[in-house]
Every structure is written in C-alpha cells, then in structure tokens.
Amino acid sequence: MIVVLKHDPNQAQLESLKAWLQEKNIVIHESIGHSNTILGLVGDTSKLDGDLIAALDIVESVKRVQEPYKNANRKFHPEDTIIDLGCTTIGGDNLTIMAGPCSVETEEQVVAIARAVKASGATMLRGGAFKPRTSPYSFQGLGQRGLEILKVARQETGLPIVTELMDLSQLPLFKDVDVIQIGARNMQNFDLLKAVGHQDRPVMIKRGMSATYEEWLMSAEYVMSGGNENVILCERGIRTFESYTRNTLDLAAIPVMKKLTHLPIIIDPSHATGKSWLVEPLALGAVATGCAGLQIEVHNDPAHALCDGSQSLKPEVFDPLAKKLLKLHAAMKDLEG
Ligand code: PEP
Ligand code: MN
Description:
The chain is of the alpha/beta class. It has 2 domains: about 1-65, 2-Layer Sandwich (Alpha-Beta Plaits); about 85-335, TIM Barrel. It has helices at about 10-25, 50-55, 105-120, 145-155, 190-195, 215-225, 255-260, 270-275, 275-290, 315-335, and strands spanning about 1-5, 25-30, 35-40, 60-65, 85, 90, 95-100, 125, 160-165, 180, 205, 230-235, 265, 295. The strands form 3 sheets. It has an 8-stranded parallel barrel, surrounded by 6 helices. It has a 4-stranded antiparallel beta sheet with strand order 2-3-1-4. Helix 3 (about 105-120) runs parallel beside helix 4 and helix 9 (about 275-290) runs parallel beside helix 10. The longest helix has 22 residues, at about 315-335. The protein is elongated and about 70 Å long. The two termini are about 35 Å apart. The mean pLDDT is about 95. The structure holds phosphoenolpyruvate (PEP) and manganese (II) ion.
C-alpha cells in the first residue's frame, strides 16, 4: 500500500499515523520527493482500511500496490536509486563501465588490465575469484587469493571492484568488496539473497537465464527486505531457441526495469552474446536504450584466457569502445535535454 501525503503535512499527525502503522507491524519506507512525500507500507496490509487512512487531513491519496515486489517498486520510491561507492556512483547521471577479465588469473594480468581499462574510462574493475563453471573440470577460480589480487588492483588504480559471491560460506571474505555480484545461476538462491540483504555492501543481481522480470525483481526484493537497499540489476542475456549467440540480450529489460523499479540497470553484452565482435554493437544499443552502465569482459590475452576468452575484448579494442560509449551517453543526455 502507498500513502501519498499532502504537501508539508502536520508533523504531529504524521508521527501518530506512523506509530499507529508500526503497532500493526507495518514497515514504513518514507520517500521524500520534490512535491510529495510517499509512505510505502510493507507487511500484512490486507487488514488496513485504506479509506480510513485516506480520510486523514495529512493524506492526499492511498493506493494498493498489486505487484508482489514493494521495496523495489518505483511506486514506492519514484526517484532513481543512486548507489554511492565513494569514488563513483551507479545510477544517476554518469555511465558506469565495469570492465575486466572473466576470471582473476594472476596479479600481473589483473593489474595490467585494471590500469588499461581505467585509462580508457572504466569506472569499476570486474573479475571473478569464485567461478560458477558448467563443467567441474574447468578452471574454478583462484578463490580467496583472487579476491586479494582484485584488492591489489584496486589499490593500484583506485577502481572499485565487483566480484561474484557463490556461496554463503564465502561471505566473510567479501566485507570490503565494493559491489557483491550474485550470478545468473544464483539469482534464486534465496538463502544467499537473504544473507546479502543483511549486510551493507551493494549487491548486483544478474538476471537468471530463464527468469521473468517479476522473478528478477523478487530477487531484488529479498535483498531489500533484509534492509540492504543498494541493489543493482544486470541483464546478461536469457535462454531462447537461438543458438548462434551464447544467450539473447533482452534490451527491452532496460525501459521495462526503468518503469517498474527505481534500481539501476546494467547490461552485460559479453555473456549475452559470447562473441567479442558482438560486444560493441550491443553495448552501443544498450547505452542508446538508457542503461545505467555496462559490464564488459576485457582480457590482455583472450586466446589464452582461462575462461570466456571468445567474448573478451583486448584492451586496445575496449579503449575506442569505452570512448564511444561515453560520447553516446553524453549525446543521449543532450537529446533528452
Ligand atoms: C560473470 O560475470 O563472470 C558470470 C559468470 O556471469 P553470469 O552469472 O551472468 O553468467
Ligand atoms: Mn565470464
């Protein structure tokens, strides 16, 4: 349920309304906008009398929210969420570019790639330390050592790091990671989602391969209902009948998510296509469609990469692309006025 307050409501009446709702075990999310303040009510609102609340002096209107996701719903929080990482933000006016190797392999590799992508305009470093691989015989990632290497690269370049958490047992190691990535395969690992909802690092949830928009938003809701509101969504391609590309990039997810939720949406054209030559056109398409940012795999020696070499860009290919993406983003802002 959403309660839209009148402009400049009487504070005593507002406090008494909030106290009354809290007595009924309703959690209140207050969103202060330019013209109105909105109270988003979460909990068992079925027994609340909307007409009674609407009749209060300070209340402009009351609406029932049909969607099962509440905290993630734009109706609850009309302004875009902007996630502050200290040195950069995700959401808002800037274009986030997360770039780096699929997997952390060596310190030299990650530091060299981090330096290169930073010089090209990337705002974050990506890299997997714990890798979800289809085959148990494939490289599984360096684990804790991989996280240490990412931190060295952060120290060297100042780029915040985004890296995947695969299992609850790894969470203590992720305390000073800048953004925790929940991979597509774990999008509905509800215990993992609950755990990252109870800690304070921002969380990026990649869309499951066959997840609907609502299922994806319900995963965000799991994290947010635990108290962590810093959630980012990442579309990374879904399974369709097409087998030419690794997955099918769903660009419609960008305007749909911008309508349904206030959370920033990132596009991963690398896992979406599986082919390095398709990364550029789809990344440009994503920026033109209004994404908050991109996650792109970059490797200094794709032919020898331990994971996902065929979709990884060399730094010298990433460089002009990053510049084009930033120019296109600026042009889009101009067009929108
Ligand atoms: C990744 O980003 O390294 C990854 C495994 O992505 P996804 O979960 O989208 O497959
Ligand atoms: Mn990968």
